[in-house]
Amino acid sequence: MKLLHPCWPLALIGAMAGAHAQPTSGTLQLRSLAATCAACHGTDGRAVPDAGILGLRGRDRNELAARLLAFRDGTRPATVMHQIAKGYTLEQIDQLSAYFAGLPR
What we know:
Strand content: under 5%
CATH architecture: Orthogonal Bundle
Radius of gyration: 20 Å
Structural class: mainly alpha
CATH topology: Cytochrome Bc1 Complex, Chain D, domain 2
Distance between the termini: 57 Å
Largest sheet: none
Number of domains: 1
Order of helices and strands: HHHHHH
Number of strands: 0
CATH superfamily: Cytochrome c-like domain
């Protein structure tokens, strides 16, 4: 009596691969946080060329964090970034900086 189809190992491997591809809740939260930057800085930090707005992808992590902190404490002038940055915790600033720095330019 044959109980299993001969392709069951492939189905099992496919199911396992799909499980690994699922982002964690922390990853989803970070991507949601980073998505708030898309309206001005472009999708995934890819700025529109010649728009006069900084592209965030692949920038130095410390540079990004320093800019956000300067916006947040008011030492860097801005039209809206100073208001946006005040809403981020230090942990979120660190996470955003690491996220965009980790993306290829």
